[in-house]
Design goal:
Elements: H1 13-25, H2 35-47, E1 53-57, E2 63-69, E3 78-83, E4 103-104, E5 107-109, H3 117-132, E6 141-146, H4 157-163, H5 165-168, E7 172-175, E8 181-183, E9 188-196, E10 198-207, E11 211-212, H6 222-234, H7 244-256, H8 258-269, H9 274-282, H10 286-292, E12 299-307, E13 313-314, E14 317-326, H11 332-342, E15 351-359, E16 362-363, H12 369-381, E17 386-392, H13 398-403, E18 407-410, H14 420-426, E19 433-435, H15 436-454
Parallel strand pairs: 3-6, 3-7, 7-18, 9-17
Antiparallel strand pairs: 1-2, 2-6, 4-5, 5-19, 8-9, 9-16, 10-14, 10-15, 11-13, 12-14
The structure holds zinc ion (ZN).
Zinc ion binds at residues 83, 115-116, 149, 176.
């Protein structure tokens, strides 16, 4: 290893910190989003360094920005992707103004610091360094900071891919979702998001026959019918499915932590015993056990229920909404059919189904040159570290790109600066913040990865 090649880019500390503060200061709470203001800021910021930026609005105020560094075409293209919108923040709950972007105690504070303006700042800094250092690129490197990820991405990444694929499509994509290291017994294990679950949100309507509340046997109570539906779906435990990402994740953690080895080797050898094994693991490592449970099966969660109009009227209608999450390899059409089959004993003719939203699951495998580069760069920055792929239970814009054939990894390199479960909670949470140290670390690793992969 050449010591000169791998180093923390301390000299960008002020620049990247300032950039993130400015981005947080532009309130892009979605809804309404108002991302255009942030895209204008970024376009101006980048134009000062000679970048040509293109702005695209899917609707007034809903802007995304794209820029590109041309390569020779000898290598595939790489997109550095981020979203500019953030979720709502209730200022009264915070210890600082969530849109101040204040820097104190070694952290940049504010909504979006982790999800994901911190990554936007790191990616912009990486682009600037590639240009400044005149890195000879063998493939195009693109940057896109987009609108609307926190709703469903339809007015951001999906809009751009549908309308301007030649502007935004790339063979490889680096995005949010992974990168944070899990501290294990012996070492940090860095995660790379290689897969995400799909979403099937659906509504079930149960019909009945109305009647007087004093005469329950004469009517057909829709609430009682829905009660059976909720009971059946809410308690359903689908078969265990270990997708490649999750197998590698469990194997990876087991290899780094002897105390986990006994649990995960049993689970991997006999997936049917998963529930039993995770119950045992939960006695000593509850947060980890609960992280794994939803990653090995499809889940169905009742989230909304409505029924009844008056104290003494037996309702003829009751409806409930379910949040179903499926694994790569499963699909929303077959899943809805499976759900209907589960309910066929509950007077099927009195139930109707309505899809609210569906996103298919997606997965990129680890057998790629980009994954290899990520692994070797991390091992140079932190000689003893582990690297593992991981599956996210939520969704990101990566799903749109995977559908088009891109290899996508969620990778915002971060060292754990608090216990793992606390860091994860800070995303979308109160007092969201990222350490200045992690901004420098993230920029240094990302720049090295891009430089090495593209040259
Ligand atoms: Zn996000």
């Amino acid at each position: 290893m050449n010591e000169m090649q791998v180093k923390l880019l301390k000299e960008v500390e002020e620049e990247v910190t300032h950039l993130l503060s400015d981005l947080i200061h532009i309130n892009t709470t979605n809804p309404p989003g108002n991302e255009t203001e942030a895209t204008k800021y970024l376009a101006e910021h980048l134009s000062k360094e000679g970048f040509k930026c293109e702005l695209y609005e899917s609707a007034p105020g809903r802007g995304s920005v794209i820029t590109r560094l041309k390569g020779t075409g000898e290598k595939p293209s790489l997109l550095l992707l981020s979203h500019l919108d953030v979720v709502v923040a209730n200022a009264e709950e915070w210890s600082v103004d969530p849109f101040s972007g204040v820097v104190k105690d070694g952290f940049v504070w504010g909504r979006g610091a982790l999800d994901m303006k911190g990554m936007t700042a790191i990616e912009v800094m990486t682009m600037k360094l590639l240009k400044r250092n005149n890195v000879k690129l063998k493939g195009d490197v693109l940057l896109a900071a987009t609108a609307d990820e926190e709703q469903d991405g339809l007015a951001g990444a999906d809009y751009l891919l549908r309308n301007y694929p030649q502007k935004i499509f790339a063979d490889y994509v680096l995005n949010e979702g992974g990168g944070l290291a899990i501290p294990t017994q012996s070492k940090n294990v860095y995660t790379v998001q290689t897969a995400e679950k799909g979403i099937l949100w659906f509504k079930v309507k149960a019909k009945g026959t109305p009647g007087h509340g004093s005469m329950p046997d004469v009517a057909d109570n829709a609430i009682m019918r829905m009660n059976k539906v909720v009971d059946k779906l809410g308690n359903y435990r689908s078969q265990i499915l270990l997708v490649p990402t999750v197998k590698q994740f469990l194997n990876g953690l087991a290899g780094e932590d002897a105390s986990l080895q006994q649990f995960f080797s049993r689970l991997l050898a006999n997936p049917a015993l998963s529930d039993q094994v995770l119950d045992e693991l939960a006695k000593t490592a509850k947060p980890l056990a609960e992280e794994i449970r939803p990653r090995i099966r499809m889940t169905i969660t009742p989230t909304i229920i409505h029924g009844g109009v008056k104290e003494n009227v037996i309702p003829s209608e009751c409806e409930a909404v379910f949040d179903c999450r499926i694994l790569p390899g499963q699909n929303t059409t077959e899943t809805l059919q499976l759900i209907k089959n589960l309910l066929k004993d509950i007077d099927a003719e009195k139930l109707t189904f309505e899809e609210i939203q569906k996103n298919e699951p997606s997965e990129s495998l680890t057998e790629t040159p980009l994954y290899d580069v990520i692994k070797s760069v991390l091992e140079e920055f932190e000689p003893n570290c582990g690297v593992t792929p991981m599956l996210m239970t939520g969704g990101t814009d990566s799903r749109f790109f995977r559908k088009m054939g891109s290899v996508c990894y969620g990778f915002q390199p971060m060292r754990p600066d608090k216990p793992y479960d606390e860091i994860v909670k800070r995303e979308h949470g109160i007092d969201e913040r990222i350490s200045v140290e992690n901004l420098v670390f993230g920029t240094s690793v990302l720049y090295e990865v891009v430089k090495r992969f593209m040259s």
